[in-house]
Amino acid sequence: MAGKKRWREIHDLLFTQYGTCSCPLKHRTPFQLMAAVMLSAQCRDDRVNLVTERLFAEAPDAERMSRLPLPHLEELIHSCGLYKNKAANLSAAAKMIAEEFHGELPQTMEELIRLPGIGRKSANVLLGNCFEIPGFPVDTHVTRLLNRIGVVESRDPVAIEKENNAKVPAELWTNFSHLLIQHGRKVCHAGKPVCTECVLNGICAKRGVK
Ligand code: SF4
Asked: Which residue owns the Cα nearest ligand 1 atom 2?
């Protein structure tokens, strides 16, 4: 397994290229980011931002979201795909937040993953981006990159998160995940990585893979 020095090298090379990244999902409150994260499953961020502009105008907080009739909520988020599941989860999560958490998004992993539609990855996004509580969200980009670079040999998000957390300082986790996702979208594509233009070219085990 790779040591801390190699992990830090990966972080630093990506940071040189992309710097400090902000969450691309538009939101004004932690609750709104939770809703946007739910809608972003298998949907582009720019599409989510279009949909949430109208959604948050009608229902900016958990209490008002919980009162939207389900068919209307489905209509509002329809273009994000998987809209029936997403609407059901969003409505149920809004209700739970309104009733159990006084309308405020909870700030612990244990509470967040009790919300319908929120798994460990989404909870880490919320902890890091809303509350500055270190979290390392592991999505398909993070999994693909870290396997290709050669610092993990696993598709298990929990195992990858654990390995990162043991090797990278906590204050870097949230942005490191953003950096890997950016690089996965722009350079290390799932189908055809552009290794000749990759800042990690010199240290990647799989440079040149097709
Ligand atoms: S060298 Fe190629 S495979 Fe490795 S991280 Fe860069 S783009 Fe991905």
From this structure: 195
